[in-house]
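Task card 7
Instruction: Convert sequence to structure tokens.
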Amino acid sequence: HVQLVESGGEPVQAGGSLRLSCEGSGYDKPNYCLGWYRQAPGKEREGVAAIDSDGSTSYADSVKGRFAISKDSAKNTLYLQMNSPKPEDTAMYYCVAGTRPLSLDPRMLFRPYWGQGTQVTVS
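Output:
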């Protein structure tokens, strides 16, 4: 039973910093690919960043140079470091796990597991 639990979302001022965490359990962690997705009110869900089982990363153009995805396999935890957030980054952020490299297009995900989300509000 795969479980993903996000934390770290909170109100933050534009230009500040924030780190999201996602603790995972119930899956073969070394072979899974992980990612962060978000959904703002009235908008479609979109990919933010992904990290493959070999550690290679990909980012949405809107967050390149500002956000960084990383994982700590020993702690079974995925992170998203958000630097210089902007009001348009306000959204519910979700952690996703999958057995194949994650597309940043949520419609292309193959049998993904989703967390419950953590709210980030940038003002």
